[in-house]
Amino acid sequence: xxLLASIAHQLDALDNAxxxxxxxxxEAVRGTRLTVEGRxxxxxxxxxxxxxxxxxxxxxxxxxxxxxxGVGATxxxxxxxxxxxHESLELELARFLGLPRALYFYAGFPANVGLLPALVGRGxxxxxxxxxxxxxxxxxxxxxxQIHVFPHADLAALDAQLAACTSPRKLIxxxxxxxxxxxxxxxxxxLRLAERHDxxxxxDDAHGFGVLGPGGRGSAAxxxxxxxxxxxxxxxxxxxxxxxxxxxxxARIVEWVMQRARSYIFATxxxxxxxxxxxxxxxxxxxxxxxxxRLRAHAKRLHDALSGDAAIGRLLDxxxxxxxxIIGGNGEALDRMAALWRQGLWVPAxxxxxxxxxxxxxxxxxxxxxxxxxxxxxxxxxxxxV
Length: 386
What we know:
This protein is α/β, with parallel strands linked by helices. Helix content is about 45%, strand content about 20%. The protein is built from 15 helices and 15 strands. The strands form three sheets. A seven-stranded mixed sheet has the order 4-10-9-8-7-5-6, with helices on both faces.
């Protein structure tokens, strides 16, 4: 079978397994209301957790940045793409996080894909949670280090793997908040294991930054963790409402990443209009605690209404804006998504390989931009769909 025929056959297989992904065209965005192919939908599908993506303060900051620096950075940060705005953002991120230094990347996936090979290589060892995001998995593979996968949040298994490892350099990597289950990794215990076994701990705080911790400083701040062994990576396209990512921690580690991460060295920098929006976002994240309070209230209301109702599905116990409703089969999850769509709600069905076989789910994503009536509408629609 030639390549084209093989691809066609594989696409048919995706269709038969109800696993082919489809895009929808979003024509307009008004907070949590999206116009999709001519129809207004109430969205519970995005990661704009704090409702900042359309905030006028961010838009105005981006416009000022575009007026001063244009809409393209034109080069890598290590050539002429690192503006005074980028420099200010990195300093402000480090201060916000309470860490010695921060480095800004243009996006989250390439940050991890470049970060792990910069930290470890052949002869070293990576210890990776079984439910880690794809970018951590791909980064570990590209590093060419020996990869040890431990069962999700299993500290005893991780301890045993670390104890048996003879590699000179060890790196533990984990999502801080897991994107499909919404649970928080046992970070204090993992940091203690890193210290006991002379390892570094890298946490991907894509879904914790802005949401958890005092002032939204993220998962490490949530647990009050401080250690030169701790490396924090986070994305700025979710709660921060814009685009990009950061790596923060010990100044020597961050400098080494800047010198060695291929996805940083050989990629054009993000435009300064984005970094200006992010600087404005950091100020709002820190100042407006009501956004996190509203998120917690929405999550509690959802759990109070749906927990224990087996007919609707199994709502996982998540303390974050990610609220997974386990359905089971792929077809059934798609049917439930379609039923909600007919009622004007966009809640995505997540299927393997993103989640384990037999755990297809509706991934309900809450935002501070939702109001009480929105959450009530979702609860009513979920009840009506069974």
